[in-house]
Design a protein that fits this description.
This protein has one domain: Rossmann fold, CATH 3.40.50. It is built from seven helices and nine strands.
């Protein structure tokens, strides 16, 4: 670990000690999921050494630790993006903290633009793989051979199957697809979207991929769900962050059902063990 993970984990445990199993990262407009955490303690990122404070208006920048759907969880309510600092490693300390707290599974959420006209704003999309269009990698500079992370199966097949089952049980239409990471903060051009579609992308966004790489480096299982907040450039008249936040809120009910349903299956596994 880079040095701060154990220290931050000790701060969280001093506030609330529990057998944490699952970490959750909340994307733009999705922070209300943290309000469902029971018996929660909230710790500002400012109180945790090495944690980044998000400059994005829809990110709360606090750790929320408690119980959700029967599972002990640590929620990162707010993430740092590459475009805020030019540093793709900014989420390393938060993820190392989750690992130090005992988390084995990481649930990532984000707001994304759809490249498929049939996957409309407000829809959830289960990520099956990604394309790193930015070219940046959070493991650049890592000196150990552990930096050569195998990204086959980065998006855990079993966890994806569980999410799909929850969607069926709750009659939630759930798209699946490849997420393309562009650095931002400007939205993509129509030409870039045409390129991304040609190369196999189904959605675009400005986060998540560095976290997946770091999570696999740390040995965490990963599942990621996008909330589609807009159609990508060239597919609708204008794009704005205000719309991203608004449509993120519209999709939060479906996302909450999917995430809590997944957590219930993980809690049942532990009870049956």
């Amino acid at each position: 670990m880079s040095g701060y993970g154990q220290q931050c984990a000790a701060i969280v445990r001093a506030a609330r000690d529990a057998p944490y199993r699952v970490g959750i990262v909340l994307g733009s407009g999705l922070g209300t999921l943290a309000d469902a955490v029971e018996g929660a303690v909230r710790i500002s990122y400012n109180e945790l050494p090495g944690f980044p404070v998000s400059t994005v208006s829809s990110h709360a920048s606090e750790v929320v630790a408690g119980r959700l759907a029967g599972c002990e969880v640590v929620v990162l309510a707010g993430r740092a993006h590459y475009y805020e600092s030019g540093d793709p490693t900014r989420m390393r300390t938060p993820l190392e903290t989750l690992k130090a707290l005992g988390c084995e599974t990481l649930i990532l959420t984000n707001a994304a633009g759809s490249l498929d006209i049939d996957v409309a704003p407000g829809s959830p999309m289960l990520i099956t793989d990604h394309i790193n269009f930015s070219g940046f990698n959070p493991l650049i500079g890592e000196e150990s051979d552990a930096r050569f992370v195998d990204m086959n199966g980065a998006y855990d097949k079993d966890l994806r199957a569980r999410v799909k089952a929850v969607a069926v049980e709750n009659d939630i239409p759930l798209a699946e697809g490849v997420y393309a990471w562009f650095s931002g903060p400007s939205f993509e051009t129509p030409a870039e979207i045409r390129m991304a579609r040609t190369l196999g992308a189904d959605a675009v966004g400005m986060s998540t991929v560095p976290e997946v790489i770091l999570a696999r480096f740390l040995g965490l299982r990963v599942v990621a769900i996008s909330t589609i907040t807009n159609l990508a450039a060239g597919m609708q008249a204008t794009l704005s962050h205000a719309e991203t936040k608004r449509m993120g809120l519209e999709g939060v009910g479906k996302l909450t059902t999917l995430v809590t349903g997944l957590l219930k299956t993980l809690d049942k596994d532990e009870a049956d063990a």
